Amino acid sequence: MTKGRKTKAGNTRQPTTASVQEGVEKLEAVRNDDLEQSLPAPPARRPRKSRARVPEPESPEAEPPESGPGADGQNPFRTLMRRNRAPEPATLVIFGVTGDLAKRKLLPAVFGLWQDGLLGSAFNIVGVGRQEMTDDQFKDFAIEALKSSKETDAIQPGSLEKFRDLLYYEFGDFGGDEVYDLVGKELDRAEEAHGGRKNALFYLSTPPSLFEPISAGLGRLGLADESQGWRRIVIEKPFGRDLASARELNAAIHRVWDESQVYRIDHYLGKETVQNLMAIRFGNAIFEPLWNRGYVDHVQITAAEDLGLEGRAGYYEEAGVVRDMLQNHLMQLFTLTAMEAPAAFDADAIRDEKVKVLRAVKPIPPERVPEVAVLGQYGPGTLYGESVPGYREEPGVKPGSTTPTYVAVKLEVDNWRWQGVPFFLRTGKRLPKKVTEIAVVFKRPPLGMFPGGLERNVLAFRIQPDEGVSLKFSSKSPGQEMVLREVVMDFRYDAFGAELESPYSRLLLDAMLGDATLFPREDEVDRAWQLVSGLLQVADAPATGKNAPNYPNYPAGTWGPDAADALIGPDRRWRRL
Ligand SMILES: NC(=O)C1=CN([C@@H]2O[C@H](COP(=O)(O)OP(=O)(O)OC[C@H]3O[C@@H](n4cnc5c(N)ncnc54)[C@H](OP(=O)(O)O)[C@@H]3O)[C@@H](O)[C@H]2O)C=CC1
Ligand SMILES: O=C1O[C@H](COP(=O)(O)O)[C@@H](O)[C@H](O)[C@H]1O
């Protein structure tokens, strides 16, 4: 299945076309510290930095493809989007609509989709919360949320007023029946207004403790029944807090919903560049032959955050970094990088491959944790020139808390493709910058024929920010001598000339279209919990006695505990991003 993508600027795109690729590559001398260190000292007679360049990127529309969408001279991206991505009339029901996620991300994402004409006119949103509000008060609330969120697309004249008309609100106790009865009546009303079937997407944007009661309540009132239209449920993360609770939650959900109705959301899968990983791996012939133990030395997956707690201490103290980022987002990035090519680009084929590779990862019982993982917690430090408090000084954090805010782990994959190729995953809060990257680091050339030419090639997928893909390789420096230095061929997403859409827009639309490709399946989530179980046992162990962690073990504004360097070393080092 080929998919078009919607951008904020109103264009749509499909996975990489040759014309786009040709237009956006550029060759640039590398300037970051990491590489500078590996360069030979420049000859004294040539003080200028050499910069090899290819022409500036062209607009993606400059050259129409030879065949397929756009070959007729129309904008290929818009055509694809309009043709393929219109859901049936439906009602979106958001439980927890007064919360942070709904205000900052979900309402803006839905508004953007609607404003771009992707949700059709027969579409309604029913917000559900515990706070008493009239429809009008909710409409005001939602419009205010749209105006204040940084995620909201540019608002076209008159749009907000029309969007307001689509909004309704119900409130009540999520443990009782009444609120679900009211939601059912909203679906009846939508059916009367728009005709057709009573399709509904229920989005659970509430604390995880409410996932099960809401699912059960919807089931009790018959709202999961698909006889009058499709019914789907989107469940936010974290899906459980460990393997046992995730299994209980799955069982509870399945008492009401068939797996085909369940959409467990991981917003990293909605990020444009995460999807591009699949496009580049499986849409080109040149990468896959190298994507194995014969050529790859190791893989580094980094999700660094400069932010601290942002007022979420209540949640984070219970979760910690392993539950918050590793079990879901980083594991997803890992599976997409390591999985075999699926037989087709569809939900089951892709998810089958993801599960297979998760199964091939060598288990990490608690006794292996010291050998393959490093946990950390930030202390006071300096970020962007400003002093910032340590984790234990953040509002709402328990004194002496042992909640980890950093984790690095080495995954070993016991299959033919990856035997002996470690995958290093790291993520943490209050690191020096916000950057998410997957770097495939290749083996060194077998023979050092030239001075300076034994560096490892790196294919790096920058998930965010400055989304793009770069390939680092050695090239001859201009001059009489055969001296090599590293350069980077860099594809940047901004060459498409459009802002990237929010992952929530992508995933909401997919769920409304019944496309579960980018939503983790039950067995994936289960396997990911199994893999982090040993780490959780160590992280959650009582904070007293000789096993108590020596936290804080990295100052805010640094790249994490020193032990993480030892984990990846001695012959390898973390990329300096
Ligand atoms: N916020 C974020 O950036 C992200 C959030 N998530 C996930 O999304 C979900 C929602 O997060 P977030 O919006 O931050 O959460 P919030 O704490 O802001 O609240 C979510 C909603 O749940 C309601 N709620 C809370 N407790 C109860 C209760 N006991 N009974 C009825 N309603 C209740 C809140 O009502 P009220 O407004 O009245 O308090 C609010 O409407 C969570 O699962 C979270 O893990 C995932 C990724 C990022
Ligand atoms: O799910 C979460 O993700 C964010 C990071 O998401 P990003 O899209 O900004 O990279 C993280 O800050 C948060 O703690 C976590 O719950």
TrEMBL record:
Pathway: Carbohydrate degradation; pentose phosphate pathway; D-ribulose 5-phosphate from D-glucose 6-phosphate (oxidative stage): step 1/3. Residues 93-276 form the Glucose-6-phosphate dehydrogenase NAD-binding domain. Residues 9-20 have a biased composition (Polar residues). One of its GO terms (molecular function) is glucose-6-phosphate dehydrogenase activity. The keyword Oxidoreductase applies. It catalyses: D-glucose 6-phosphate + NADP(+) = 6-phospho-D-glucono-1,5-lactone + NADPH + H(+). Pfam families: G6PD_C, G6PD_N. NADP(+) binds at residues 130, 173-174, 237. GO terms for biological process: glucose metabolic process; pentose-phosphate shunt, oxidative branch. Residues 278-574 form the Glucose-6-phosphate dehydrogenase C-terminal domain. InterPro entries: G6P_DH, G6P_DH_AS, G6P_DH_C, G6P_DH_NAD-bd, NAD(P)-bd_dom_sf. The keyword NADP applies. Residues 23-34 have a biased composition (Basic and acidic residues). GO terms for cellular component: cytosol. Its EC number is 1.1.1.49. It comes from the Bacteria. Residues 1-77 are annotated as: Disordered. Keywords: Carbohydrate metabolism, Glucose metabolism, NADP, Oxidoreductase. Substrate binds at residues 267, 271, 305, 324, 429, 434. Catalyzes the oxidation of glucose 6-phosphate to 6-phosphogluconolactone. Belongs to the glucose-6-phosphate dehydrogenase family. This is Glucose-6-phosphate 1-dehydrogenase. It comes from Deinococcus aerius. The gene is zwf.
